[in-house]
Amino acid sequence: MMKLFEYVAQPKNPKILAIGKNYINHVLEMGQKEPPEEPIIFQKPSSSVLLVTAQNNTLKLPDFGHEIHHELELGVVIGLTGKSIDQSKAFEYIGGYFLALDLTDRTLQAKFKAKGLPWCLAKGQDGFLPVSGYIEPKKVRDPHELQLKLKINGKTVQDDSTGSMIYKVDQIISYISMYMTLNPGDLILTGTPAGVGPIKKNDKLVGTLHRDDELLTSIELNIA
User: What is the pLDDT of residues 36-77, one digit of tens each?
Assistant: First the structure.
């Protein structure tokens, strides 16, 4: 147990960071009129990760009866250690990309927000971060020229360009690194476009990430 503790108590262990309300149309659909004055950063635990494969493609919803929402996002993998990273050099710290679904328990989130409390439990439940496989950085010329699309049971519910981000990828990396050292293996979710909504049992989710007409990766997830 002591060795396990010493392993865990290392500052370079990977972390999962995320940004909220980073697409203006999503800001509007969430009931706000103006974008945030600075990036809204939160974390998700590693226990929320679900690496979606052909053999591992089912998520069982919690039994609480809460409303769970989908949020499709571009993910960034940090490849180098950096602190106080200059925005002009931020892309040098990117080691790859991935596609992610940032699932949110809206019932819990609303409860906690009404009390002015953190909403980690709304974001960090088991399986609440389905992710695709890894995308090599050379396959992404510009992370702001990609297309995010999510279909549920064949119906498109989210469809937008990553160019619509309020805070761009280089800004996000630079901003976070002012406060936290970024290490290789850290994951950053860059926000979701408009169209978020509930998922339910027996839904089939298909999320895709395209560069022009090329499919970079996808997530196919069954909800149980």
Answer: 999 999 999 999 999 999 999 999 999 999 999 999 999 999
3-state secondary structure 92-110: HHEEEEEEEECCEEHHHHH
* Rounded-to-integer distance, Cα 145 and Cα 158, Å: 16
Percent of the chain clearing pLDDT 70 (strictly above):
100
Identify the CA nearest to 76 among candidates 185, 180, 204.
185
Residue 28 pLDDT greater than 90, yes or no? no
Token pair belonging to 184: 């290789």
Separation of alpha carbons 103 and 120, rounded Å: 12
> Per the structure block, which two tokens stand in for 46?
């590693």
Averaged pLDDT score across all residues of the chain? 96
What's the predicted TM-score (pTM) here?
0.96
* Residue 118 CB neighbours (<10 A): 11
Q: Nearest CA to 109 among 119, 124, 99?
A: 119
Tokens representing 120 are: 């980690």
Rounded to 5°, the CA angle 200-204-208 comes to 120
pLDDT band at 31 (very low <50, low <70, confident <90, very high): confident
CA of residue 82 relative to chain centroid, distance? 21
Tell me the one-letter amino acid at 176: I
Closest by CA to 147, choosing from 72, 211, 99, 215, is 211
In contact, 124 and 134? CB cutoff 8 Å: no
Length of the chain: 224
**Is 74 in contact with 163 (CB distance < 8 Å)?**
no
